[in-house]
What does this fold into?
Amino acid sequence: MTLLLTGFILIILSLLALDLGLFNRKPREISFKESLGWTACWVTLSLAFSIAVYFIYENHWFNMGRGPDGAVVDGWTAAMQYLTGYIVEESLSLDNIFVITLIFSYFAVPPQFQHRVLFYGILGALIMRGVMIGVGAALIHQFHWIIYVFGVMLVYTAFKLLMTSADDSVHPEKNPLVRLARRIYPVTSHFEGEHFFTRMNGKFAVTPLFLVLLVVESTDLLFAIDSIPAIFAITKDPFIVFTSNIFAILGLRSLYFVLASVVKQFKYLKVSLSLLLAFIGVKMLLSSYYPIPIQVSLGVIITTLAGGIIASLLFAPRPTERDVLEAQEDSVADPLKVGGRA
It folds into this structure.
């Protein structure tokens, strides 16, 4: 498995290097059409990888084909586990998109700099999630009862997600990393282009864009605490857990530019995500007594998400006069003036 994971990581790093080094060398605003195209590419690549998973496990390449508990995992089961895990992780990232939108709005990050923040934010997320998946897999292998702890966490998270709004969870001024950065280094009052660091009065200083990156990274850490136990309810195979997580994260950047302006309109999506987390938590709690088949899990997950999306489209609230006025005010707001709060 080590050789397989190493090869996978090298391919992902190469794709990221092409992204920043070739396609997005200069800061620019990502258009909706371009982001839609990249989203289609990442989704296609992610779904196509399930075919690779099928052959890897079906033919026992790289000695794959047995789960951590020693049970034989055939190619079809492995591919279904990967697809289910990918859909779960991609779905949970939708709430993350809304939070990132609020963070960018709070700091008034110009559109041409948002891609750079998301790029390095996702690079950090890959490292954090890799470590957390490794730790989670080791804990489950060593202590089986940790499964029930994860299950309770997911049920609690589902309830908390349903009862709170994303606005309540975004308080950059209270973020411990932001406070620490402010205490150690001076912070410029405005953006310095796409730079995270600069010099102010001859001294090393950080820019508001670096503070944005810190908030995005710490926010993803909180989301990972919820989403990683969720994928372990689908499969305990570290390779499938890791790859499904990575592909979901890689598609998050382009998906953000597609959905950032409309995700707030899907008001029933949060209900779907809450039900999804609750179902996965219950699945994890029942895993030793009544294992829910992966096909059933996939059907429940797709139905739940589709229900939230369809309900949001059918019962979408009409914009009020106040909403129109606020949108007009936002369109003429001075971004540097707002960014000065950072």
About this structure: The radius of gyration is 21 Å. Residues 31-339 form one domain. The chain has one domain: 31-339.
